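Hi R.,

Here's the chain you asked about this morning:
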Amino acid sequence: MTTSFNVKRDVLPHAIAVVIFLLLTAVYFSPVLFENKGLAQHDILQFKGGAKEIQDYREQTGNEALWTNSMFGGMPAYLIQTHFPGDWSGYIHKILTFDLPALAGNIFITLICAYILLVAMGMSSWLAIIGAVAFSFTSYNLIILEAGHNTKSLTIAYIPMVLGGLVYALRKNLWVGAALFAVGLTMNLHFNHLQMTYYMLLLVLVFAVVEIVYAIKNGAFAELFKRGLVLLVAAILAVGVNFGRLYTTAEYSKYSIRGKSELTEPNSGEKVGSGLDREYAFNWSYGVGETITLLIPDFYGGSSSAPLDTDSETYNAFLNMGAPAAQAEQLVKQGLPMYWGPQPMTSGPVYVGAIVCFLFVLGLFIVNRRWTSWLVAGTILSMMLAWGKNFEALNYFMFDYFPLYNKFRAVSSTLVIAQITMPFLAILALWKLLSERDEIKNLDKKLLISGGITAGVCLLVWLFAGSASFISDSDQQLIQAQFPIDAIRADRASMMRSDAFRSLVFIVLAGGLLYFYIKNKVSATVAMAGVGVLLLVDLWTVDKRYLNSNDFQRQVEANYFQPTQADQLILQDKDLSYRVINLPNPFNDARTSYFHKSVGGYHGAKLRRYQDLIDRHISQNNLEVLRMLNTKYAITGNQQQPVQRVPDPLGNAWFVSEVKPVESPDEEIKALTMFDAGTTAVVDVAKFPEVERRHFNADSASIKLVSYAPNELKYESESAREGLVVFSEIYYADGWQAYLDGEPVDHFRANYVLRAMEVPAGKHTIEFKFAPKAYSLGNTISLISSILLLLVIAGAIYYAIKKQPVAQPVVAKV
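And the predicted structure, written out as tokens:
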């Protein structure tokens, strides 16, 4: 039997929820929305530097460059910034976020997606609002925004919508649920942070295993299989919308540092084999004991640069050392390394909330096992994976054998699974308690046990905090800098004790409210509202430690990209194309790329061969390698001489007099140690057998670059005899095509990373054009899939309004 559509019942509660979410977002991000301020987000500023050439080309021509020469000598633009006109999912995001600016939009869409999940579960609008707050204001969601991990944030934001689609497809209407799942997965993939998508898929895998076990046990496997096939089609559609982005990423990954190394001998920076180096991937591993920060935020001191107050031990120690009060205050407020955990550094802990932890434990006792099975399993898996090198038995196995796992670094990020599963189970527990109070046996006892466990941990930490060492690896540097290390350690102990007591108070207050509800002393509305307010205050105040109004500034981008004296001097050179190396910070900074074509840059997936070149030669100051990269200027960081000319750069292209054949990539990169880049081309003849050892007469031969665009280069050459030209451009076979006088010709790799080709005698026009087939094919499939997705959305909206009959659920009740 169908139910008629009712605006007051079916629209108004959700509209109120949206207004509440807008208000929360507006209050937290008021500097962004009302004062035109922004954050100095490190990764976003680096992105803007690396993407400047790509964006300029798009504005000037209306086309996509797909390649940029602004970073690491040249690389595909796929993982920097590439638009896919066939992918319409960006419009969906703008609609869902009301096109709010970044940062504000990130948290708003997190609230919306979490709300969708909980409403799909069947919760009331008010309870879903509380749950959305629990999901969205976990500390990590705000900390990664401060760091500039915007795409990571948005990928995480859409995970609850994916789960909501799964739940709705299995519990209620298969077709509406599948449509919601398709939209959620489409948007999750849209932001192309595949590491977060991978972790989501791990959680979905755990969920699927539990569902299959229960379906077989209950004789419902056929129904589950049917619904699973529909969800699989929805997943294929989501992949189809993002196919251009995924296809080009997959193609590029083979050649990036995430792909397989061609070297058989280890070098200083990268692992031989496929994927990242194990040490590099596990460098940011959460400590086993550090997991308690989920309950007590500053258990390990919080941030690696945390400000202190004037009532701190460190402030008083500075005064006792003779520092003036103003100087002592400045020293403590500018931030000190209060974090003393096992990670190299951190911007803050992963804190899901004391009340969430308390309700999570309660959920173990009162929520249906079919839900707790996968939510608890996902939480434990998340924690163990986050421990990384601190739990080698599991994590080294995962890294070496689990598909694609070795493509990702900073394994502490796997705690994003816990920050989904823990609030989810917590709000399920609250829902169960409020709606089925009288049916749950010994509920008061279970509530007291749950409170006793979580509050007891806090109490023990508060009582025995002084017994910890509070010693950090950075302490020796502080001692050498004559910082009062004993006072700093005392403040670390104080932070631990203070936060333990803080969490204890929130648990007691929330537990007390719920206990009064169980005993009929307060209504369900009062209990729910009280817990919701406490939960918001708990999370909000911790979030403000790491992202608050003082962090927002005006004209962040304009100030960061203000040209320096060195930039201004270099920009006086109007040659079409040359490169610059920033000596103080060449390979971890893309600011140089905003103004110049840089030898260095900032990117987590640069070309592996270029990384080899950095490790073996550029970092070793091999001048011949800098010459062959047409490095014309070096930024010194010295005010007296901010710029130095690099001796004899070889230009955009040059004729060489000899080919030096080698038989492997190992020999090829070794040969660059002692060679004359101006006269010799080193070629791996095992890869390019058509190239033979030959001598050329490079006299009376010239070549020059006459036209430059990031994806199209034109040269004019003249030579009396046949010759061999080396181009100071990065070789990348999947997309670059060479042309001689308008006709396609072959080119090959020389000097480990550059392009080369044989040129016949006479005057010729040589062109290189970047037109990868992966982009055009991927964009076409994205367009077709986008049209299909819109049809699916329209059908789902029609279904929802018409209230089609609800199918029998195949998942358990809460």
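Confidence is low (pLDDT under 50) at residues 268-272, 805-811.

Let me know if you need anything else.
M.
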